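does this look right to u?? S-adenosyl-L-homocysteine version
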Amino acid sequence: MSDPKPDLAELEPAELETVVTGLGAKRFHAQQIFRWLHRRGHERVDQMTDLSQSLRAQLDAACTITTPSVTDRVRSADGTEKFLFTLGDGRTIESVFIPDTPALTFCVSTQVGCAMRCGFCLTGKMGLTRHLTAGEIAGQVRVLARELDLQDSRFNIVLMGMGEPLHNYDATMKALRLLAAPEGLAVTPKRVTLSTVGLLPAMAKLSEEPWIPNLAVSLHATTDRVRHELIPTSRQQRIADLINACRRFPLKHRDRITFEYVLLAGVNDTEADATRLVGMLRGLRAKVNLLPLNEAPGIPFSRPSDEQVDRFARGLARGGVNVSVRKSRGRDIGAACGQLIIEGGPQRTVAAAP
Ligand code: SAH
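got this back:
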């Protein structure tokens, strides 16, 4: 049975006002509560010291607060830190803090596992356990900001942890509104990047939102055959349709769409691929972020040499494409792209090496 009590961590400011006034209290207390939860990262009503004892007792009786709790924390030699969060139902997810990209960045999860099953991604091997709630998605950020004492700093958020954000559309959008609220952490959409495998109906919906995060699209191939092989869930889709959807995606002045392109030795890293990619992106306000594969046991691909990565990047640059190579962070602690997976315990579903 689901808990009928409202979860305060899940409510937008206007919803919180309804709960507070429903208890007979003044509307402005909603702002105080939102601030304690989202700005200060507190998780208990008794920590909200500017509320009266009686309002605290009422809230305690009538509501819950769901906060993911940090149950492990590992620091990489390069300063990247990986956090293991345990959720209310005992499921676990991972988030990563990257201190210098050059900004401070939180990489957060939107699902427990992922249903997209990309052949080179460890999270994909887990399959999808469940969607996260908006409170759990935003909760990773408010807890990390508190743990790292960054509540008053500027930071970026990338939805590139476990999961496909557009497959959990409503909760992801609500989480972004919770994070953007001025009473909370006030992370504006300009500082948020949503990375998607390219779910077209959801991309169309996203383009109608009142505010839109930066968009990163996982392209990963220049022919339908290779893309269908790497991303089984893209089999109903043609690259041309994805690119056309990107052409229609609304961009503000000077913004660009990022195309992520994982480089797999001998699979999608040839000169012909570079040439096709240049042609495909002609006229699009785009940049390409190359992701040399982070290898892992059970992943049947290998990472191209640095020289090959460089050749591919120069091929794109020669064709006029704005290109960068993602520096892999936190590989020694399994915190790099595609390395997030819960090892050990009931969720372990890592495939054996072929
Ligand atoms: N579901 C979203 C977010 C995935 S994580 C999406 O598909 O875009 C962010 C990026 O890391 C994606 O481009 C993803 O394809 C890539 N990635 C996954 N596994 C990787 C690996 N082993 N090495 C390098 N990049 C990887």
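The chain has eleven helices and twelve strands. idk if thats expected tbh
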